[in-house]
Amino acid sequence: MSKFLPILFLLMSPLLASEFINQRQDSMQDFNKLMRAATQSLKNGETDGLSQIYGDIESIMQTYPTLFPDDSFDGKTKASKNIIEDRSTFNQIANDASEWAALAKIAADNNDLDILQQHHQNLYGSCKSCHSRFKN
After folding, report:
1. Could you read off the pLDDT of 77-87 as tens digits, one per residue?
2. CA 68 – CA 80 distance, rounded (Å)
3. 16-58, pLDDT tens digit by residue?
4. Domains present along the chain, CATH in parentheses
5. In principle, which of 72, 79, 112, 131 could form an S-S bond with 135, CB 3.0–4.6 Å?
6. In terms of DSSP H, where are the helices of the chain?
């Protein structure tokens, strides 16, 4: 039985990588929907519901870096292997995005539309920064 474990692991490895790819794609789809909703609310000058949106974004960005183990870059993914080589920068961008979302949430709770828009722009900028460095 024990000699079959390495073979089983080799067979399961692509399935595990595929699951990470699916999870991060789902997370980014959720993130994009939330950002679109937040952008629309801001365009309309509304803050209702934004606290929850930014809280959800913060949560996504806190767990997002864990979805990129070194063996999850083959298959149907647009993630660059540069993440492996520069994981500290990747993690810092995700952390910054999480912090911008937390600050936006506070601004939404305080109905401070000007500060909220600034934090939203910073959050959006972190997306562009990450994609330019770590997306194929």
Report:
1. 899 999 999 99
2. 10
3. 568 999 999 999 999 999 999 999 999 999 899 999 999 999 9
4. 2-134 (1.20.120.10)
5. 131
6. 5-43, 50-63, 82-85, 87-109, 113-134
